[in-house]
Specification:
Length: 613
């Protein structure tokens, strides 16, 4: 997830870009850069200093030449290529005249780069984005104008993008386009803007327009013209913006948590993008570990804390089921102090959104000391966890601001399940046709999550009716169990209510003594194979006076007789259900917390990243 901005026709281009980038830092801050054009000249500055990137860029621009009426700027959340200056946007073509910025992922960048290099193009970064500059360069060389050059280039790229391009030989226009990644256009008299998000240009533009997928916009000082990928004119929808700056950074939502809950379909899609070759091989570009080594793995141990640990517990089921490998999950803070056994062939996976959780870092250090190969699963490129591991898989959930983790969880489950499929593929433990079907199924989950999100109002209704409750048990079986743990964690950390997650079958071994009228039991009951057993467990709690809330699939009528409230979700392959089932549980916890007047983005006593033991 990156932030982009552009302006044409301005008398203070550079200030507009730098101010906008500062407001877009929440989208990513691995590096930042700007490019300015005037006839015959392109000027560029970039900096890669982590959280200080925009400030460092400002310094780089102190002695920038003046008189540029057009410019583009970018703040980067690294996906392909390390967060270093060389990979910072804008990227230039071979002539240095064309400059582009890009948010998204170009899936077929490897093959495009090979083709471009064979035609003599020289690449100066390790990003997927740079191909766009060279593709545009080729069309410009054929005499096409910038708009047509961008259109032609987009016809050959696959993936997601919000892109903006400039050329010093057509200095009074910027051409921008969108597929999947957000893009808006702003206008003011004599000046036209583009941005990934409204806050970047909120105090500069007076009218705002949304660009839809596969639309290309030509921005000039006097206004803009939009076309579709076939070149036919289109009208952009004008947005009503009545937000202040803070609200705008939350994209119109009341808080970051709501924004991040709503971003879950995109988090899953981005994490899965570009992960399979044409021959069906599942691939992780950033995984620096050979197929032979992965094939030789005998046992998997996953270490993680909090929500990441729940994602890890779900992965255990997938690794065992598909790859037929013994897998266990440990709490990071326990692993290093219990004298763990690391046999030859043990693969340790450290899972952490931030990649900075000290318990998880210490755990993987211990594992490496004992000879394990370690793979990190991290949301932050070049995090400590990623750097200290032998290999890394990045989830691409985008910056998560709210302390309660939501979109990082679904992205972790998607990434880990994809790794489980890769292990199965290498070990040939399930037929290729099943892997194909599972891969397709995994790619369909984002839409199912969207459907679950659309049912927000019915979850809110249920939560509001239970606002006075104080004790909650979350039950599940199979992957419904870690989902229940995650639902309980969300409720306790956000609302400060007592909530326990349990395997449903374990209740009768003790905790059932706590069930009495007034206690709320929230059950995850979407696995058809274990459904009857779950119904029996629910009958047990119901008989003791509990109020029963059930997460159930759309077609499940048998649940109605037992449940006081049903939270419906679309059905999916059992191992994918946690990504869908967690949505009503997140919304339930959120509504309870708001109802109790809690600060959902910053719950008491907690920190987003825990860097002390
Ligand atoms: O950055 P990490 O994934 O390593 O963080 C681990 C936990 O601290 C984190 O998941 C925590 O449990 C969240 N507040 C849960 O919402």
């Amino acid at each position: 997830m990156c932030g982009i901005i552009g302006v044409v026709g301005s008398s203070d281009t550079l200030a507009t870009l730098l101010e906008g980038l500062a407001r877009l830092e929440y989208r990513g801050y691995d590096s930042a850069g700007v490019a300015l054009v005037r006839p015959g000249e392109t000027w560029r500055a970039r900096a890669a200093e982590g959280t200080e990137s925009v400030r460092a860029l400002r310094k780089e621009c102190e002695f920038a030449p003046t008189g540029f009426a057009s410019g583009i700027g970018h703040t980067r959340w690294a996906t392909h290529g390390a967060p270093v200056t060389m990979n910072a946007h804008p990227h230039l073509d071979c002539s240095g005249h064309v400059a582009i910025i890009h948010n998204g992922i170009i899936e077929n960048h490897t093959e495009l780069q090979e083709q471009l290099e064979s035609r003599g193009h020289v690449f100066t970064s390790r990003t997927d984005s740079e191909v766009l500059a060279h593709l545009i360069e080729e069309s410009r060389a054929k005499g096409l104008d910038l708009t047509e050059s961008v259109r032609q280039s987009l016809l050959v790229v696959r993936g997601a993008f919000a892109v903006a391009a400039m050329d010093a030989n057509e200095a009074d226009v910027i051409v921008a386009a969108r597929r999947v990644s957000p893009l808006i256009i702003g206008t003011a008299p004599g000046v036209t803007y583009l941005a990934s998000d409204v806050p970047a240009i909120l105090d500069r533009a007076t009218s705002f327009y949304a660009v839809n997928d596969d639309e290309i916009v030509r921005l000039a000082p006097e206004g803009f013209r939009a076309i579709d990928l076939d070149g036919a004119p289109v009208r952009l929808h004008q947005l009503t913006i009545d937000w202040d700056l803070e609200t705008a950074q939350k994209a119109g939502h009341d808080d970051f948590m709501t924004k991040e809950i709503n971003e879950q379909p995109d988090a899953i899609r981005s994490t899965l993008l570009d992960r399979r070759r044409r021959d069906g091989t599942i691939t992780f570009d950033e995984l620096r570990i050979s197929d032979e080594e992965l094939r030789d793995v005998q046992r998997v141990v996953i270490v993680a804390a909090g929500t990441s640990n729940h994602a890890a517990q779900i992965a255990k089921y997938a690794i065992e089921r598909w790859a037929r490998l013994s897998a266990e999950v440990d709490i990071s803070s326990e692993y290093r102090y219990r004298d763990p056994v690391v046999e030859i062939g043990t693969l340790v996976i450290g899972v952490s959104q931030s990649g900075e959780t000290i318990d998880t870092i210490q755990a993987i250090r211990e594992a490496r000391r004992r000879g394990a190969r370690v793979v990190a699963v991290s949301n932050i490129v070049d995090s400590s966890l990623a750097r200290e591991s032998d290999a890394v898989i990045y989830t691409r959930a985008g910056l998560e601001v709210s302390v309660a983790s939501t979109k990082a969880f679904v992205a972790q489950v998607a990434a880990l399940e994809l790794l489980a499929l890769r292990l199965a593929q290498l070990r040939e433990t399930i037929p290729a046709s099943d892997i194909d079907a599972l891969f397709q199924g995994l790619n369909a989950v984002a839409d199912q999550v969207t459907t679950a999100l659309e049912r927000r109002a019915s979850v809110e209704d249920v939560a509001k009716q239970l606002l006075g409750a104080r004790d909650f048990f979350f039950l599940g079986r199979h992957v419904g169990f870690p989902t229940a743990l995650e639902g309980a964690l969300k409720l306790k950390e956000l609302s400060y209510l007592h909530a326990e997650g349990y395997p449903a079958g374990e209740l009768k071994h003790g905790p059932l003594a706590l069930i009495e009228p007034g206690v709320i039991v929230v059950a995850v009951a979407t696995d058809p194979a274990l459904h009857e057993k779950m119904l029996s467990n629910l009958a047990e709690v119901k008989a003791r006076g509990a109020t029963v809330v059930v997460v159930a699939t759309d077609d499940d009528e048998s649940i109605d007789a037992l449940a006081d409230y049903v939270l419906r979700v679309p059905a999916t392959e059992p191992l994918f259900t946690p990504m869908v089932d967690i949505v009503p549980l997140q919304l339930f916890a959120y509504t309870m917390a708001r109802g109790l007047g809690r600060n959902v983005d910053r719950p008491r006593n907690l920190a987003k990243t825990v860097t002390v033991e």
